[in-house]
Specification:
The protein is α/β, with parallel strands linked by helices. It has a single domain, classed as DHBP synthase, CATH 3.90.870.10. It is about 30% helix and about 20% strand. The chain has seven helices and eleven strands. Strands 1, 2, 3, 4, 5, 6, 7, 8, 9, 10 and 11 form an eleven-stranded mixed sheet that branches. Helix 1 (about 15-25) crosses helix 5 (about 125-135). The longest helix is centred in the first third of the chain and has 12 residues, at about 15-25. It is globular. The N and C termini lie far apart (about 45 Å).
Length: about 210
């Protein structure tokens, strides 16, 4: 049965953040808030937890998983970008965007798109998510908490606990954080390409 932590959305309790990080390190799968919607998260190299996310969300091998990063300082480790793309990223992070970029060899193959070798990168504007990443000392492997057949992600942490309490190790209640997933933008080609319209403004991104 999942543990349930109530964490302050603006001033996260360090004790609870560290306990959540310990759960992740032990192979736990968690639900946590972001600046767009609630997400599923696990440790970046944990194959079993990743497979559990695939099962929960009914994802195929072509799904682009997302690395939730603290800031762009971690970008060069996991993605290949030129100066122009970096400037685009810098002007739109942190925020409700997921950027699809060419992955480096540091990214586990099972996280990449099976054919294109790309990875999603995201820098959230959410104190709880950033606190978790900081405590882990590395990006968090993440996926929007959108269950098969649902049009929108789960938004109420109590509903999440009731629905998934036997399939997660932890649900973090960080309050309401929105109903829309991120806007997904593919930057692996010559021009930005909108793959999913979410709560981020793609027209603003296109001005760069």
């Amino acid at each position: 049965m999942a543990q349930f932590f109530q964490i302050h959305p603006e001033n996260p309790q360090a004790r609870l953040i560290n306990q959540a990080a310990d759960i992740l390190r032990r192979g736990g799968l968690i639900a946590y808030p972001t600046d767009s919607a609630y997400a599923l998260g696990c440790q970046i190299g944990d194959k079993m937890a990743l497979d559990r996310i695939r099962g929960l969300r009914a994802l195929d091998k072509h799904h682009n998983f997302t690395l939730m990063c603290r800031d762009l300082s971690e970008l060069a480790t996991y993605a290949k970008v030129n100066n122009q793309v970096f400037r685009m990223l810098k002007s739109h992070t942190p925020g409700p965007y997921t950027f699809i970029l060419e992955a480096t060899s540091e990214v586990p193959r099972r996280l990449m798109h099976a054919k294109r070798k790309t990875i999603g990168i995201r820098v959230p504007d959410n104190a709880i998510a950033l606190g978790l990443i900081e405590a882990m000392g590395e990006p968090l492997m993440s996926s929007t908490l959108l269950l098969p057949g649902d049009q929108y992600p789960l938004t109420d942490p109590y509903d999440i606990r009731e629905t998934l309490e036997h399939q997660l190790e932890l649900v973090i209640d960080g309050g309401f954080c929105g109903m829309e997933p991120t806007t997904v933008i593919d930057l692996s080609g010559e021009l930005p390409k909108l793959l999913r319209q979410g709560c981020g403004d793609f027209s603003a991104f296109g001005d760069n």
